Amino acid sequence: MKATKFFEMSTQELKDKLNALKADLFNLRFKHATNQLSNNMTMVECKRDVARVMTILRQRELNISFEPETKAKKAKKSSK
User: Which domains can be identified in the chain, with CATH numbers?
Assistant: First the structure.
């Protein structure tokens, strides 16, 4: 998945995605160990996605990057 898609997600969505990616990575490692994994690049891509999500979460924690505004917040700001 492209990093721009991750930047468009909210912090809670990123945390949920991180948990899902970690579970996928565990399953991929298990398949790799039992020689059932046909494409090793899926494991590499999953690791990179985990790193991207963790990086974005850390940036938001340090206020380097910001959570995108939701439609409700945009509507509230434009009405003021």
Answer: 3-72 (1.10.287.310)
